[in-house]
Amino acid sequence: MIQRVVVIKLKQAYANSDDRRAVAKHTRSVLQPIPGVLHLDVATPADAHCERSWDLCLLLRFEDLDAVESYRADQRHRAYVDIFLGPILEVIRVWNFEI
To answer: If residue 77 lies in a helix (H) or strand (E), which one and from where to where?
Structure first.
């Protein structure tokens, strides 16, 4: 089982509570239905310390790394990253952990 951890820093103009909530909602609606995604949590900062560094945290579960690669290549994921997130993104970091 693979736990994929994604942290996202939005551009300053979008780093506010309303935009974070809107991005989180859109993220859930687009990424959850992609084949191979067994579970998805989308979180926003719980305290000021976290808020200074990151705007969203995505936790995705997959059966294996092959499922991660299929997800990454999926047209819906590509559109989410390239078209939706790209213009509002400052920094993104991604890690895969075996659980």
So the answer is: helix 75-79
